[in-house]
């Protein structure tokens, strides 16, 4: 009898384990070095702990948002990690489910919590300037220190900026507006500066992180607008590149995540999100990606601490864009940008 019971229990446990092991969760996120960090350092321990399979779907924020919109009601992705601007759009369109509170989210800074509790920041990024030190030294140029450097004619055909469909291009437009008497509510001065002063200097409006990195590494681009995390990945490869916090302030760009509304494996997606928010994974993202930890209990090595947005004081100093205004005008701005800026 014991033998039969033992066999039955063993079979049940095996069936449960097999069923659990078969669970697959699709996670959408950034490509390039971010994808590499997730695949090599973050996903394997989660799979080992849960017996599940995590499939990473890479793409930029705009592409991933478009996938969520196209698949509404029949979602394939269970978790999406995109820039905070597009994330506000996703939440507004009912694409995100409410986040179930867990240890990771409870330890997050208050300003990582996004309105409605349907999305949350997973990394603080400072948007500023990056430059190739060798190109600057060869030309006798001093290091850039201002957003206005993008308008300097000496950098003609030496600047690279992502397009407006990428968070970095959008925030460049916002800063040009703010520095020329405008704002998110009054964007015309920003477009005027972009068209007349910035665009003539731009070699490429580059959407690909890999291509951006290559252009900075080779010196094809001398000056760029990018996030400190992306720049750090290039520096780690040995490139003579440096990130600059402009004197007017770096703009806060938060990587955010949400569990997709109506997606398969919602519980596993919630579990993976809390795992990404944990102090341990936040330390990995800070070290590998240069993302500022959103978990206030994250501890970093001193050399890592210096190069990321770390601690309440530094987090509080960054410029916060008004995405309520931005997202209401995003389609109109994109059309205008495509007509007049990226000609």
From TrEMBL:
What highest taxon heads this organism's lineage?
Bacteria
Which residues constitute the signal peptide according to the record? 1-21
Q: Which InterPro entries match?
A: SBP
One family from Pfam that matches here is: SBP_bac_8
The protein's name in its UniProt record: ABC transporter substrate-binding protein
Biological process, per Gene Ontology: thiamine transport
Indicate yes or no for the key word Metal-binding: no
């Amino acid at each position: 009898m014991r033998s039969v019971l033992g066999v039955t229990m063993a079979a049940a446990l095996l069936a449960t384990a097999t069923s659990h092991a078969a669970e697959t969760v699709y996670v959408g996120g950034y490509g390039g070095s971010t994808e590499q960090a997730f695949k090599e350092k973050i996903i394997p321990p989660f799979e080992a702990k849960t017996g599940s399979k995590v499939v990473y779907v890479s793409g930029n924020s705009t592409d991933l948002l478009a996938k969520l919109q196209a698949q509404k009601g029949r979602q394939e992705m269970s978790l999406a990690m995109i820039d905070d601007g597009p994330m506000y759009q996703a939440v507004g369109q009912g694409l995100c489910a409410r986040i179930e509170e867990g240890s990771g989210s409870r330890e997050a800074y208050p300003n990582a919590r996004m309105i409605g509790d349907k999305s949350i920041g997973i990394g603080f990024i400072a948007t500023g300037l990056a430059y190739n030190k060798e190109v600057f030294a060869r030309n006798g140029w001093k290091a850039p220190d201002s957003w206005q450097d993008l308008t300097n004619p000496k950098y003609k055909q030496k600047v690279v900026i992502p397009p407006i469909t990428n968070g970095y291009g959008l925030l460049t437009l916002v800063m040009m507006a703010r520095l020329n008497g405008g704002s998110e509510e009054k964007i015309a001065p920003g477009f005027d500066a972009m068209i007349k002063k910035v665009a003539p200097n731009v070699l490429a409006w580059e959407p690909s992180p890999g291509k951006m990195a290559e252009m900075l590494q080779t010196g094809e681009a001398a000056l760029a607008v990018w996030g400190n995390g992306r720049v750090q990945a290039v520096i780690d490869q040995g490139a003579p590149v440096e990130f600059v916090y402009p004197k007017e302030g770096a703009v806060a760009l938060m990587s955010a995540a949400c569990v997709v509304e109506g997606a398969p494996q919602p519980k596993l997606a919630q579990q993976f999100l809390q795992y990404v928010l944990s102090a341990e994974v936040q330390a990995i993202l800070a070290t590998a990606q240069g993302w500022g930890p959103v978990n206030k209990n994250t501890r970093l090595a001193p050399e890592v601490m210096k190069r990321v947005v770390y601690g309440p004081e530094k987090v509080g100093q960054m410029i916060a864009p008004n995405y309520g205004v931005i997202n209401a005008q995003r389609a109109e701005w994109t059309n205008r940008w495509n007509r007049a800026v990226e000609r």
